[in-house]
Automatic annotation (TrEMBL):
<dbReference type="InterPro" id="IPR018484">
    <property type="entry name" value="FGGY_N"/>
</dbReference>
<keyword id="KW-0808">Transferase</keyword>
<protein>
    <submittedName>
        <fullName>Xylulokinase</fullName>
        <ecNumber>2.7.1.17</ecNumber>
    </submittedName>
</protein>
<dbReference type="InterPro" id="IPR043129">
    <property type="entry name" value="ATPase_NBD"/>
</dbReference>
<dbReference type="Pfam" id="PF00370">
    <property type="entry name" value="FGGY_N"/>
</dbReference>
<keyword id="KW-0418">Kinase</keyword>
<dbReference type="Pfam" id="PF02782">
    <property type="entry name" value="FGGY_C"/>
</dbReference>
<dbReference type="InterPro" id="IPR050406">
    <property type="entry name" value="FGGY_Carb_Kinase"/>
</dbReference>
<feature type="domain" description="Carbohydrate kinase FGGY C-terminal">
    <location>
        <begin position="277"/>
        <end position="474"/>
    </location>
</feature>
<comment type="similarity">
    <text>Belongs to the FGGY kinase family.</text>
</comment>
<dbReference type="GO" id="GO:0004856">
    <property type="term" value="F:D-xylulokinase activity"/>
</dbReference>
<feature type="domain" description="Carbohydrate kinase FGGY N-terminal">
    <location>
        <begin position="15"/>
        <end position="242"/>
    </location>
</feature>
<dbReference type="InterPro" id="IPR018485">
    <property type="entry name" value="FGGY_C"/>
</dbReference>
Amino acid sequence: MYIKETSQAIQRGDVYLGIELGSTRIKAVLINDKYETISVGSYAWENKFENGIWTYSLDDVWKGIQSSYLQMAADVESKFHTKLTKIRSIGVSAMMHGYLAFSQDGTLLTPFRTWRNNTTEKAAIELTELFQFNIPERWSIAHLYQAILDEESHVEDVNFLTTLAGYVHWKLSGEKVLGIGDASGVFPIDENTGNYSEELLLKFENMKRVSAYEWNIRSILPTVLKAGDVAGNLTEEGAKLLDVNGYLQAGSFMAPPEGDAGTGMVSTNSVRKQTGNISVGTSAFSMIVLDKPLKKVYRDIDIVTTPTGNPVAMVHTNNCSSDINAWANIFKEFAERLGIEIEPDKLYESLFLTTTKADPDAGGLINYSYLSGENITKMPEGRPLFVRDVNSSFTLANFILTQLYAAFAPLKIGMDILYNEEEIQTNVLIAQGGLFKTTVIAQQILSNALNTPITVMNTASEGGAWGMAVLAAYTKFGNENMNLEDFLDQYVFVNPNSSTLSPEPQGVEGYETFINNYKAGLPVEEAAIKYI
């Protein structure tokens, strides 16, 4: 990347911005016409458990976005000696699902209920039976119907229901829209129409409890758009909200707001049929783009879509790396007591590398990384739990390997449904997420767990926000002129930098022993939830 060339592109506004609100970090990534990263800004945040609900405040949403943007813009000015005043197009992505309900005057009616909440079981089961289509507890429609079942007073005032990405996009552009991938986690999508299923909308609005309200489900849901559509423009108010210094001009094209699953597919070039990817972080999910419908409805398999509307089988787990992070912090505190300062990346690398001396089955140790409830294993609440018996080999290597094994365990259980019952075959899965910053270790463990080759790209740890920036750039092509699949192949991933690891027989066997012990011990986790 040449300084003069990039500086001129920034002055012309030939740059594209992707913003992603993840579960632990908000990122702003600016890219050029070659889809290279110019600058990155980030902000760390955490959800809070308040009044029995996992939530983030909207004040923190904007504090994080503004901090990320200012950090990125300052970096641009420092490196390229020009202020960032014009951006060709902008895209917003965020954690999918959840519940953000607003009144007619734009007032938030109840604190943001995130994907992490396992509070809608009754609604999800009832809607799944009615629709004959799996409605997970995380989905927005499940949250709305559960609020109806619970006779929450705010429901009668609902005027607009959206996701986190949809909310931010609305405030920046004034448009109440969603990208089809994010919308598919709000209400089921009809592949043929590229819109919410008319049949299921009709079933929902005719439910006795629903029809009692004056609002109609069609009027309160965001409009559905596909990748390549222009989803409005950055308004004057939106520009000031994004750049509190006031340098950014209004008028940028806005890409349809997407969920983190959609941006994960883009950043791993996994939007074609029969391709698949895995994203790991606070939660984890796999996405397999289907070439045919599943044989039946599964409560552990969600049907969502790519950013272009193709159906995807999604295995979503509520827990992945949070317990690893908690234990890593314990080791960091211990190091500090010894007077040793250690950078986070070095800490994780040191811990992960110890697993090269571990037993393949992790020495008989078991860990349940449930900071919150887990839908795959039917756990209503979180109780992180480490278990060993008197014959276990309790070494540091086995302990850390157990943490990594456990992080992927619910995903393994869900993926086995697709592999064993649906006989879905994938030649390779592309993975991304912070766990892969330490090369080889987590990648090899995931390959062994799923008995599938795993590819990690060089964008593995920054992929989502970069993927949203790519979707923002795609608006100049439009979905009519070039489909997203060809755009990614011909322009973005021309020379992909990646590495692939295949399953190791000994590691596969060891993980199978671990997962069998893990399943057998689930009643212990249930008891912990009940009694602790």
